[in-house]
Amino acid sequence: MPDPDQEIYIERARKELLNPSLPSTKQYLEVLELEFEGDSPKVARVNMEFNDQAASVWFHVKDERFFIIINVSKKPGNEVCFARTGSANRVYLTAISEQYTYDQLARRTTLSPLTGWSMGDGNKAGKCVRKFSRISYEPLTNEAYELEEKLLSLLRHLDDHREKIAGLFDVLEPRIQICRHQYVDGNAGMHLRRETIDLLSSLKLDLDIDTYITGKPLVDSPERDF
Questions:
Q1: Angle 41-147-131 from CA coordinates, rounded to 5°
Q2: Residue 197's CB: how many other CB atoms inside 10 A?
Q3: Structurally, how many domains does the chain consist of?
Q4: Distance of alpha carbon 141 from alpha carbon 90, whole angstroms
Q5: Using N-to-C axis directions, what is the helix angle for 7-18 and 23-31, rounded to 10°?
Q6: Which helix (H) or strand (E) holds 56?
Q7: 115 and 193 in a common domain
Q8: What is the DSSP letter of 34?
Q9: Minimal CB count within 10 Å: which of 169, 172, 199, 200?
Q10: What number is the average pLDDT over the span 90-113?
Q11: Quick one: pLDDT at residue 189?
């Protein structure tokens, strides 16, 4: 259940989606279909710390792996102030090997929970055999986060637990893997602050980014609020 303090923002954002007032909301809903939970648009996350002036409410889009986000003012009246899309972001530590099994790799770290496979295992579709082993650590699986917000959270966590990953560097080159599913008319830019870059360097981690563009494009319209 949502935090009671978040309910006012959720309800205000849902009202905007059900009865749009912003030109941008109307544009998105013209080509995108919301996922519902009962009679209400399904909430993926509420970010109360978006900034000092507003909270952001993330909503699932039906059959898509990105989100519609409604920003709601924290000022009295809680007016809707902006509508946008947000990418689905997976951010995790991963390491691969053509020599060791999954179990052998997993014994080199005390991070938990881990996921992965061994070389020789079948893939999920069962149509081919894995050519390498992999272990991955993804403590935050909710994809409704801004990319750097999620990346920095993981790097800070790893920085606090360096001893848990030290064994991986003896035989592997672990890296941070990012998988983003971005709306075709979403903002493709990304920003990495100095702390993020410094932590990547200090932890001696590579960064690999895969971006998947998806969704139906917006219909051209002269009326926009963004």
A1: 105
A2: 12
A3: 2
A4: 7
A5: 70
A6: strand 54-60
A7: yes
A8: B
A9: 169
A10: 95
A11: 86
Residue at 223 is within a domain: no
Respond yes or no on whether the N-terminal peptide bond of residue 113 is cis (omega within 30° of 0): yes
C-alpha distance from residue 54 to each of 44, 74, 145, 222 (Å): 17, 5, 16, 26
Whether residue 224 lies inside any domain: the answer is no
Q: How far apart are CA 71 and CA 62, in angstroms?
A: 20
* Domain-located, residue 226: no
User: Considering Cα of 53, then 57, then 61, then 67, what sign does the dihedral take?
Assistant: positive
Q: Which of 11-25, 41-55, 92-106, 111-125 has the lowest mean pLDDT?
A: 111-125
Mean pLDDT rounded to a whole number for the chain = 93
23 shares its domain with 112:
no
Q: pTM value?
A: 0.91
For residues 112 and 180, membership in a common domain is answered with yes
Spatial distance between the Cα atoms of 1 and 34, rounded to a whole number of angstroms: 20
| Average of per-residue pLDDT across 185-191 | 88
Query: Which domain range does residue 15 map to?
Result: 4-87
Integer Rg of the chain from CA:
20
**Where does the pLDDT of residue 222 fall: very low under 50, low under 70, confident under 90, or very high at 90 and above?**
very low
